[in-house]
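Submission sheet (multi-component)
Chains listed below:
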Amino acid sequence: MPKLMLGNEAVARGAWEARAAFGSGYPGTPSTEILEALSTYPDVTVQWAPNEKVGYEVCMGASLAGVRALVTMKHVGLNVAADPFFSSSYMGVNGGLVVVSADDPGMASSQDEQDNRSMARAAKVLMVEPYDAEEARWMTREAFALSERFDSPVLVRMTTRVCHHTGVVHPAERAEWASKGFIKDIPKYVLLPSHARLRRAKVGERLEKALAFAEQSDLWNPIFKGSSEIGVITSGVSFGYVRETMPEASVLKLGITNPLPMERIRAFAKTVKRLVVVEELEPYVEEAVRAAGLAVEGRSLLPDTGELNLPLVEKALLGNAQDQITVDMAGVKVPGRPPTLCPGCSHRGIFTLFRDMKLRVMGDIGCYTLGALKPLAAMDACMCMGASVGMAEGLEMFGGPKEKGKTVGVIGDSTFFHSGIPGLIDMIVHGSHATLVILDNRWTAMTGGQPHPGTGKDIHGADAPRLNVAEVCRALGVKRVREVDPYDLEATRAALEEELAAPEVSVVVAVAPCLLGGRIPKGEPVSIDLDLCNRCGACIRVGCMAIHEKDGFPDVDPDLCGGCGVCEQVCEPGAIVLPSGK
Amino acid sequence: MEITNILFAGVGGQGILTSSRILALAAVHAGLDVKMSEVHGMAQRGGNVDTHVRIGHKVPSSLIPEGAAHFVVAFEKLEALRYMHFLRPGGTAFVCPQEIHPLALNLRKDESYVKDVDAVLRAHAPNLVWVDAVSMAKEAGDLRMVNVILLGALSTRLSMKEEDWEAAIRERFSAKVQEACLASFKRGIAYVSAPV
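Outcome: structure written.
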């Protein structure tokens, strides 16, 4: 019976069919739903790790123990896990080890759009690329077998549009498979330089064998024979656009994209007059084909940034994308609707204070990055997971008197556990005067509310040990650690002023759980006494969707407002009235 | 069979994903191929959300090009305007007359909503069907019914049979709300089928 599945759900299904015993990873759009889906199957242990590196390493341990393991992450997560990724390539595996990298062309939810196909090539790791949900299922399933057969981790390279499209999947029975148990092999698994040099030779042999397999595999690298006028080499999501745009074209669809089956490509090229590569982002396949001495087009026809789509591929292959747009919206200016902190979010008060106190704010990755958007505009830099801490230290050190006593790093609790702790250690041992604000809302919120080490829950929602953020900071050696209620603006402001003035490292932990997913019932809305309102706009400038302008006055949407009281505290004439009893 | 393209538009949290999934499930129950594309992550925080559903005997890709949607189903008027250019010639827009204000930046000269949005919509959508699903859902006593009411209206223009839709709704919703959802779905059908 065919089933409708999200691409990510299909990856989980494939892993379960392959009898993976373990799944780990760190949440990150567009990869998050894979482990969530895997956790709904029986006979498989699934855990969120504090970061991708740890998730990868636990999976490596599981592989060494002899079972099949799946580790998932977004593309930038593979940067965090790059160390074990590259080294595990030399070790090879015992039980199959499959790594999912969910790349994000177009940066729908990311800070960059790196193409992780280059990572697989650099690490000399086998790579497969599904194009839709059904392929995500069977390719993940078979990736475990490839991993064991070629003694390599296998990278399943997904992209946003493959992860987050839903399609028809044909589930299969589970594979027969049993653990071999741990096999002691010191030269293979202990990467001393003398062992590593031997392993490097094995990596070369393994890639040769995998290449021979990829060259002859009609299943993984099928050829769709068509017109001899044009031949298209493609992989991943682009295959769909090619087939739909030019059903008559000859197509070589690459399911295995490392190693690249160049003899197969060469043979295919001989059957067509014109050879075109259709791929998203980097000219990964195209450059290899050109380096092999074949005449090929690709980037000359298509952009090297963003997602592809039907019109782009039509224009590239047919040269005549029709201007189909018939509803002429010229002259109608539709206001943007950028993402924003939820009404009632505990971050709003903090960023209102940052703005009003004119602080220099080094930000981090999470919902609170939205504090950089108008009307809050209270963040000055945001780079990658955990970076707020080190950047605050460096900026405070060299910013001169202007930044002294004004610099904060702001980081979420999940991000703090992910990679903020080493930065804080650096601040401590080097006597930084910067202040770190940790937003402790108990969940990994941006990706939809996954538990982290400070949540006290596991992926199934069962109770788990909980690390306390403030206690962790104290244990590291921070003397000035204090917890504040971020809904109390006056007390939070006082705490920030004191800690910024202190000539040593200090941490302010803002504790208030995330409201997402109805974990906390919505409260009664505030109301506005228009007779008292002086139309100063301070309430609008806290940036809440529940307040908008109506006939020149602020107006509260009672369906959205939960009466958090942030706007009430910034209202000088006292026109905003809290619900009774608050 | 030509591929039928349906684009859903609205604001994060309005039930756009659920609606698209039910439509896709109904297509599977009718023995058709379907691909849909969705939005997760940062955009969902109060931002505009669109999902693309493509139905046919064989659907190779999941994104609807601009100017190629047979139907735009909008849960909010501003979002109807934002995605109107996706309609193809002769395409139909089903619009729920609801206004959700984007984040205002300024009190004095707020431009966060299109003035006279109804007239602008009427002027730009050749085939516009208003479906006041919010009022109907309120009458039915459950605001969450907005999405099945809109689906009921849409279903009158698609090839899937009522039993395919019923199976999809039963698959998607718990037994507790199934009957209410089916009743609301039928209200949506009746609403657009009634003679003017």
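Remark: The domain at 223-318 of chain A is CATH 3.40.50.920 (Rossmann fold).
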